[in-house]
Amino acid sequence: MASDSTVASDQVYDVHLLYFTRDYKYFSHALMLIDPTKFKKGIGILYRLKGPMSLGMDLEIIERYDLNQSGCFKAEGKKFTMPQSCRERFELIVRQTERPVHPLALIFTDPGPPPRDDKNWVDDILHDARIQLFDALLYTIR
User: Fold this and answer.
1) Structural domain includes residue 4
2) pLDDT tens, 110-120?
3) Among the four residues 34, 93, 95, 106, which has the most C-beta atoms within 10 Å?
C-alpha cells in the first residue's frame, strides 16, 4: 500500500510528447496521458491542435486514442509522471496555453503576439505543468 507521500503506479499518468507527420514533411507535436499499466497497448488521452496554423487553431482532446491505429504517428518520449488526480488541472493548463500563431496571420493584428508553432505550445504546457502540478503536489504532501 502506498504511503501518504507516494502515489501508486495505478493512480498515475505518464505524460508523453508525441510526433506526427503532417503533409509528409512537417512534424506535428502533441501530448498524451498514458496509464503506465496500459503503455504497451498504446492507448491514452491525446491533446493536439488541429486546423491550419493561424490565430484560432482548435484544441482536440481524444479520450481513448490508439497510437497503433495512427498512420501518421512517428515517435514519443516520456516527459514526467503525474497523479491522475491532477488531470483536471493539467487540462486547464492545456486550454489556457497560448495557441500557435502563423507569422502571416500577424499582419492583421495590432499589436500581434509573437509567431509560435505547436512545438512552442507543447513546450509551454510541459513547462507550466511541471511547475504548477509539482507545486500543488508538494503543498498537499506537507
Assistant:
1) no
2) 555 566 678 88
3) 34
pLDDT of residue 136: 65
All three cell numbers of 49 = 491542435
114 part of a folded domain: yes
Q: Are 120 and 101 in contact (CB under 8 A)?
A: no
Dist CA 101 CA 114 (whole Å): 7
The DSSP line for 4-54 is TTS--GGGEEEEEEEEEEETTTEEEEEEEEE-GGGGGGTEEEEEEEESSSS
Q: Kindly state whether residue 1 falls inside one of the protein's structural domains.
A: no
Domain of 97, in residue numbers: 10-141
Sign of CA dihedral 27, 73, 56, 124: negative
